[in-house]
Structures are given as C-alpha cells and as structure tokens.
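Structure ticket #2291
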Amino acid sequence: MKKNIIFDKYVNVHNQMIDSHGFTEKSLWGSKASQQIRFKKFLELFQAKDSFSVLDIGCGLCDFHKYLLDNGFNNFKYTGLEINPKFVKIVKESSPEIDIIEGSIDALNQNQEWDYVVASGIFNLGESVEDTTNFFINQFKIIYPNINKGFAVNFLSKYSENQDNTSIYHDPINILQNCLVEFSKYVRLDQNYLPHDFTVFVYKYNLEML
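Resolution: structure written out below.
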C-alpha cells in the first residue's frame, strides 16, 4: 500500500537522522534556522493569537508548540500527531503537558475538530511525486471536514537548485490546482521565504469572513 511505503520511509529516514544528530532539529529536517523560517510562515495562517485550536500533523518534537508560545500566542489548544514512536516517547517524557497522539490522520477521532491544521515537511518522501501528491490530497480529504478555518502545508519545490536523491520535489502549480479542485477556492501559495520550499494556505472561507 502506497501509504504504508511513505510511512515506512518517513520513520526509517528520521530514525537514521536521530542516530546521527540525536533529538534535535536536524533529526527532523535541516537546521533550526530553516525550521524557524517555516514556522514563521505558518503564523500567517492564524487570524488571532489566542482562543483557537490547532492540529500539527507530523509534529516531530512539537517544536511548533514552543514556537507559538515564544511568539506571543496563548490560550490555544495544541494537538500533535506523529507516527514515529521515538518522537512521541521523547515528547511525552520531556513535555507531558503537550497533547501528542501517536498515529496518522486515519486514527484520529472523526468527531474532533480543529480551527487550524499545519503540516511541515511530511510530504517530501515517497516513491514518486504523483504518489506523494495523491497521499497529501487523500489524507487531507479525510480531515478537511474537521477543520473549521484552514490549513497550511509546506513542500519542497521542484524549482530548488539543490536537490538530493532522497526527497520528493513538488510542482507548486500542481499542488495549488489540486487544492483548488479538492478543497477550496480560497487558496494562496508562497514560494518567497526559503530557496527550496513553498507553502500552500487553504481557507474554508474568504479571510474577511473569518
């Protein structure tokens, strides 16, 4: 099953990175500096700094939770979702106050809702661009009815000039078109913050209505 292949790649690659770098930003993707830039871009999703709920898919070490707190966000409900048991274990041990769930979108309570959903760096592994794109679309079609306001996801761009042989690099236009067809007409894309990334923002309603 394509989904299981992608999950296995994710876990195996990150376990190798844990072995090399320990439980740091480098066991996820890249440096702390690039992680912070991606997180800063995600902040554009939120319409207020308090009184909201957010699901962080592929949360890793739940660094985005700390980033929100460090940047003046408060009184919010954060839930992390992570398939790698090593990341889940270390978060539960070091930050027991954080709500983290081990598993994938398929395992979530389908009656639970979140205002926002974010996913950073989790659709950059797979057998092919087509398979990974379909995986993204299918996973978010499962959870989209449970999102109240919108979601943001980042990808590696096919326009990156420094590509490796492990990662999947996406066509920004293809991702944008898929989001328009499958989710909402209230969509925007930004590829102007890091040389290898782009982020797509999908809202359920016009921003002026939120």
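Closing remark: The two ends are 38 Å apart (CA to CA).
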